[in-house]
Amino acid sequence: MRVVLVGMMGAGKTTVGRALAARMGWAFLDLDDLIEQETGETVAALFAREGEPGFRAREERALATALSLERVVIAAGGGVVLSPRNRDRLAREPWVFWLEAPPEELARRLRGAGAARRPLLAAAPREGGAVRGERGAVGPADGAARGESADAGPAGGDAGSAGAARAEGGDPMPAGAAASPAPAASSPRGPRGSPTDDLAARLAALLGQRAPLYAAVARHRVPTAGWAPEAVACAIHRRLPAVPRSPGAPRHRPTPSVTPAAPDLVVEAGAARYPVWVRPGTVGPGGAADLVPLVAAVAGTGSDGSRDASPGLAGSSDPPVAAVPGAAARPGRAGSRPPQDAAPLVACRADPEPRPGSAERPPVALLVSDPVVASLYGHGVAAALEAVGFRVARAVVPAGEEAKSLAWASALYDRLVEAGAGRDAWVFALGGGVVGDLAGFVAATYMRGIAFAQLPTTLLAQVDASAGGKVAVNHPRAKNLIGAFHQPRLVVADPATLATQPWPAYRGGLAEMVKHALLDGDPHLAALEAAVPQLLDRDPQQLAPLIARSVAVKARVVARDPEERGPRAVLNLGHTVAHALEAAAGYRVPHGDAVAAGLAVELELASRLGMAPPALADRVRSLLGRLDLPLTLAEACRAWEVPPPDPEAVLARLRYDKKNRRGRVRFALLAGPGEVTLRDDVPAALVEELVRRSLAGASRV
Fold first, then answer.
1. DSSP string spanning 385-444?
2. How confident is the model over 242-298, as pLDDT tens digits?
3. Same domain, 625 and 640
4. Cα end-to-end span (Å), the chain
């Protein structure tokens, strides 16, 4: 479920959206901010460079990405309804609210520089004044900046400032507007001859074109003129289902302590020793102030950990929310698979350099994330790192395996050099496993190694990729072929960030949890089987101990073999076949789904070799099925609309697996829960038979 706010520029979508997300304990996503994160340019600059058609094409992709998320409030751009494809997508969403305001009120909110920053209102579009500083877009191929553009700062910025406005989103809506029992009366025109009069006329013309389109996609319409943003958010909240808050999300979190609580576990890997915190509310919805003492404790920098109090309602009454005629007859949105056309154009993002002439420059923290995570959580985490005492530089990389390349690593090296990063610099990975692998590889190799921290936001990264120190980029012939062992200095996993994950992406982490339970023993496996309802519900408070237990399994293995010289290879249970499938399919099948199918194949392999009883394979297949995970290689491909690769391609990729020794494929095979054996004497004919059958869709022999 997600809530989408539509309406004219200046209607208050960003301000109301932030207030609504705070009330619900959900994440907030501004569509314009997502586009800016993807491109490294402001919306105004994109309009000037690509024209409106180019921007609208990007907006279509951004909306498709946003609508694949869960438990998120989305502020859409004012012109998002101009696209038939967007209207079709929005019309299938059950919780689309149209925020209304008359042209005169919109003009009042947008008057001055705010209107000039709106390309559709300005005769000569220009970039607005920088709020955060200049931002250069750095590509992986040549590292050349695409140009300087103003950064609108955190989406929505100051609710009462038109200076935070952008082309369509970031609507300025006075935070202190008094609530009243009815919207203020107004006319489309202000005093004759005034600037507001001309602006109101242009807005009235735009509204005349768009009003029927807003009505076509929205289920509800909400007046905003004369109402405080908090009151509008409250009115929308009342229309939502009875339990709209993210499970386990507190309404008011306490002010964080300067002294952090003890970590959930400590990973010991050779000479490295680092804490892992699995704590709801440290990164996700509600801001990242609770992250400050955790980072400060490890980075050796103090902070008072202060945070602003949550704003209260400005009025006791709510604006009326009216249903849009005919909305009830529209179908709901079918399916939850992320759209395949949502791949963004990506870029690195440059943040401000420190003031010149300062006697002492604080250490650099490079914050690496993908566009969606950067929009959802990047601003809050950057503010937390600044509060710790870092000089923060940010980089946005693609949301997919394409980011794990030497070209993108080189772009991040450039970013570190531009920021003046020395040996005291840190790299913070905010995102999933791809971001962690790339950022960790860069940290391991920049100046022969700098500090590295993991802030995983996906289940797969939280339970597996973030701990253990394996970092790498891909080679065209094999995944993770170019890498290093570089342990993080700390890991902070916030289960609340998992609420926004699309279901297919979330379930991928469940496959790694099944693997860890199989490695740990029957009690852990039985506990995971009993916890299936909690895993499906994604309650962060109940997920936290399950995630911590899964990470603890990996930590124990890593402690025995930090550099995978021997025993650590048991962590590759299910991964030998999984990695071969991923490579043969061009990395279009997500890792978690490939692991689930790989587990099924390798359990069948152990059974056919007489190592494991057939009942164990049946038990694991049952658990995978309850978690909605694929049981065959063909099913893993079909779930993502990827044609199953040729069996010969998968078998050929097995020969490049990094666990191989003396040219022989080595498998981690399960004899029973907690009993794993490494074998390189598996008959090639048996492997070929099972791979072919699984690619044909057979789950067992």
1. HHHHT-EEEEEE--SSGGGSSHHHHHHHHHHHHHTT--TT-EEEEEESHHHHHHHHHHHH
2. 544 444 444 434 344 445 678 999 999 888 899 999 999 899 887 788 899 999 989
3. yes
4. 39
Q: What pLDDT shows up at residue 286?
A: 73
CB count in 10 Å sphere of residue 532: 13
Give the rounded percent of residues in the chain with a pLDDT score beyond 70. 75
**Site of tokens 């020395």:** 422
Domain shared by 160 and 77, yes or no? yes
Q: Do 487 and 519 fall into the same domain?
A: no
Q: Print the domain residue range for 589.
A: 502-695
Total domain count for the chain? Answer: 3
**In 480-613, where does DSSP find H-type helix?**
503-520, 522-530, 532-537, 540-560, 575-584, 591-608
Q: Say if 314 falls within a structural domain.
A: no
| Phi then psi dihedrals of residue 478, to 5 deg | -165, 150
Task: Answer whether residue 136 is part of any domain.
Answer: no
Average pLDDT of the residues in 586-613: 94
Position 455 confidence tier, pLDDT thresholds 50, 70, 90:
very high
Instruction: Write the CB contacts of 13 (distance below 8 Å, at least 6 apart in sequence).
Output: 5, 6, 7, 75, 76, 78, 99, 169, 171
Q: Collect all residues with Cβ–Cβ distance below 8 Å to 191 and sequence separation of at least 6.
A: 197
CATH code, domain carrying 436: 3.40.50.1970
Residue in 280, 288, 165, 174 with CA at minimum distance from that of residue 231: 174
Mean pLDDT rounded to a whole number for the chain: 81
Q: Could you say which DSSP state residue 661 is in?
A: B
Q: What is the pLDDT of residue 352?
A: 41
What pTM was estimated for this model as a whole?
0.74
